[in-house]
Design goal:
Blueprint: H1 11-20, H2 25-33, H3 45-51, H4 55-64, E1 86-89, E2 94-97, H5 115-125, H6 140-148, H7 154-165, H8 173-190, H9 203-223, H10 252-266, H11 274-283, H12 285-293, H13 299-309, H14 316-326, H15 333-348, H16 353-362, E3 374-378, H17 382-386, E4 394-400, E5 403-411, E6 414-420, H18 424-439, H19 448-458, H20 468-476
Parallel strand pairs: 3-4
Antiparallel strand pairs: 1-2, 4-5, 5-6
Helix pairs in contact: 1-2, 4-5, 7-9, 8-9, 10-11, 11-14, 14-18, 15-16, 19-20
C-alpha cells in the first residue's frame, strides 16, 4: 500500500491509492483524466461531484479517502459522523475505525457500497445526458467556426446546442450539473476551439450553455402559458431535429397537400384567407426548418426553395409571421426603432432616416465592401437596378426627390419581398433582418457590423461579445445613459 502523504503524491500515486482502497474504477479514471495530484487537494464538493457523479461512489470516496477534502466543504449528509467512530462491517469480522483514520493505516477494513446507496445512485442518475453526449448537426456557419474559432459564432453555437439538448436536460440541479459536464467534455473533445480558462477547458462553454438553456426554457413556458413542453414545434435555426421529439411533423402526403393549399390560397390575391395561410405556415414550420438547417443546400438554394414552395413570403405580413415563429420572444421592434433613430439623428446631426442609416454604416468600415446593406436608388433607375446582380440579402429603397416611395429586399438576384406605404425604412430594415433569420443565413462580411448593430440594439436579440465598434457607437449615441 502507498504510504506517502496524499498532498505530496503524483497523479499516478494518488490513482494507485484510490485503487488500493477499493474506489470505483470509473472514479479512478476520472481522477487520472483530470490529472488530480496532491497539489490539487483539498477538493471542493462541486469537484467531487464531477469526479464521482454517482452518489454511492461519492460517499464511498469520502469515507475511504477523507484526505481528499476538507470536511467543512462537504455537505454533512455525505460525510460519516465525526463525533463517533464509523463502523465498517465485512462478512468475516467487524472492526471500528475513526473517520479521521490516517491514510497510511494498513488496518482499514473496506466495506462495499450498500444496496440502498446504489439504488439511490441509480435513481438519481438514471436520467440525463450520458458521456459521450450526442452532438447536434450544426448549421454550416457554426460548423466552419468550430473548426477554426468557435467564438466567431459563439451565440449561434449556444442557441443550436440549447435547442438540441433542452428536451433531455433534467431540471433538478444535481442531474443537470452532470449532464452539462458530459456535454461540455464531449464538445471539447470534438471541437477543441471552445477551450477557455477555468476549472475545465469547457467550463466557460457550460456556463454560457446553461444560461441559454434557462432562457429558452423560459421562452417556451411563456409561449405555452406556463406549461413546459418537451420541444417547441419551431426549433431555432441550426439545431438537429429529432423525429421522435417532433410529433407534429407532417408526413410527406400531408406536407405536399399543405403546400398545394398554400399556393392555391396565395394565388387568390386580396381574397385569400390570411388566417388559413398562417395556419398552413405554422403546421409546415418544422418541415421548413429541416430544409433551412439540413446542411445539404447552399444559402442561395435555400432561398430559391423557400420562395418557390412558399410564394406567400413575397408578402410582408407572412415574412413577419414566419419571423415570429423563429424568434417567438422578440421584443417590440417598432418601439425600439422609434427610440434609437432620434439618438442617431442627434449624433449625426441629420433629419432623415435614410441619412441616419447610411452614416451609421459608414461608422463600420469593412474589407471587401463593394455593396451596401441599404441601397438608395432614384425612381428613374428602378428597372436598371432590378437587373443588377445581387448576393446576400440587402434592402433597396426607391426615392423620388429624396423621399422613399417603395423598397424591397433582394437576395441572390431575385426580389424576395416588397414594401410600400408608410414607414418604409423602418419596415424595410425589419424585413431585412427577418429574411436573415428565417433562412438561417449568416451576415456577409461586407456589412456584418451594421447588421449586428441592428440585431443587438434595434431588434434587441443578444449578441455574445459584440464587436467593439458596435458597442462604441451605441455608447456614443447615449444608449447606456
Amino acid at each position: 500500500m502507498n504510504s506517502a502523504p496524499c498532498h505530496s503524491m503524483t497523479c499516478e500515486e494518488l490513482a494507485e491509492l484510490l485503487d488500493e482502497r477499493g474506489i470505483d474504477s470509473a472514479v479512478v479514471e476520472n481522477f487520472k483524466e483530470e490529472k488530480i495530484c496532491g497539489e490539487a487537494l483539498p477538493l471542493t464538493h462541486e469537484e467531487l461531484e464531477q469526479l464521482a457523479p454517482k452518489i454511492g461512489s461519492r460517499k464511498q470516496l469520502i469515507k475511504r479517502v477523507p484526505e481528499l477534502t476538507d470536511s467543512g466543504d462537504v455537505p454533512v449528509q455525505l460525510l460519516a459522523p465525526t463525533s463517533s467512530p464509523v463502523s465498517h462491517t465485512s462478512s468475516s469480522d467487524t472492526s471500528t475505525v475513526s473517520s479521521d483514520l490516517p491514510a497510511d493505516s494498513a488496518q482499514l477494513e473496506l466495506s462495499p457500497v450498500t444496496d440502498a446507496e446504489m439504488e439511490l445512485s441509480e435513481e438519481a442518475y438514471s436520467t440525463g445526458i450520458k458521456f459521450p453526449a450526442p452532438l447536434p448537426s450544426f448549421s454550416k456557419v457554426v460548423s466552419r467556426a468550430l473548426q477554426q474559432d468557435a467564438y466567431q459564432e459563439w451565440d449561434q453555437l449556444l442557441r443550436e446546442c440549447a435547442v438540441f439538448y433542452l428536451p433531455d436536460l433534467p431540471e433538478e440541479e444535481g442531474r443537470a450539473r452532470q449532464s452539462y459536464h458530459n456535454i461540455g467534455r464531449t464538445m471539447y473533445e470534438a471541437f477543441p476551439s471552445i477551450k477557455s480558462s477555468g476549472q475545465n477547458a469547457w467550463s466557460h462553454f457550460n456556463r454560457c450553455l446553461s444560461s441559454k438553456v434557462r432562457w429558452e426554457r423560459r421562452v417556451r413556458k411563456k409561449k405555452s402559458g406556463g406549461q413546459s413542453r418537451q420541444r417547441a414545434t419551431g426549433p431555432l435555426k441550426g439545431a438537429k431535429v429529432k423525429k421522435t421529439a417532433l410529433p407534429s411533423v407532417l408526413d410527406e402526403e400531408s406536407f405536399t397537400d399543405h403546400l398545394v393549399q398554400l399556393k392555391a390560397e396565395t394565388c387568390k390575391g386580396n381574397k385569400k384567407d390570411v388566417n388559413h395561410v398562417k395556419r398552413l405556415l405554422k403546421e409546415t414550420y418544422t418541415k421548413r426548418q429541416m430544409i433551412v438547417r439540413g446542411g445539404h443546400l447552399s444559402t442561395e438554394e435555400v432561398f430559391d426553395r423557400l420562395w418557390e414552395d412558399y410564394p406567400c413570403f413575397e408578402e410582408e405580413m407572412f415574412v413577419a409571421f414566419e419571423f415570429s415563429q423563429v424568434f417567438p420572444s422578440a421584443p417590440d421592434y417598432e418601439k425600439n426603432y422609434k427610440a434609437i433613430v432620434p439618438l442617431l439623428m442627434k449624433f449625426f446631426d441629420v433629419t432623415t432616416e435614410l441619412e441616419v442609416w447610411k452614416l451609421a454604416e459608414c461608422r463600420f468600415p469593412q474589407k471587401k465592401k463593394s455593396v451596401s446593406f441599404l441601397e438608395v436608388i432614384e425612381i428613374e433607375r428602378a428597372q436598371e437596378t432590378l437587373k443588377k446582380q445581387c448576393g446576400a440579402p440587402a434592402l433597396f429603397v426607391f426615392t423620388d426627390d429624396g423621399e422613399p416611395t417603395s423598397a424591397f429586399v433582394k437576395a441572390y438576384n431575385k426580389v424576395r419581398v416588397e414594401i410600400v406605404g408608410e414607414k418604409i425604412i423602418q419596415r424595410g430594415l425589419f424585413l431585412l433582418l427577418a429574411v436573415y433569420y428565417i433562412t438561417g443565413s449568416a451576415y456577409p462580411a461586407c456589412f456584418n457590423l451594421i447588421l449586428t448593430f441592428l440585431q443587438a440594439y434595434v431588434l434587441q436579440d443578444s449578441v455574445l461579445n459584440p464587436p467593439r465598434t458596435v458597442v462604441s457607437l451605441a455608447g456614443k449615441i447615449g444608449m447606456f445613459t
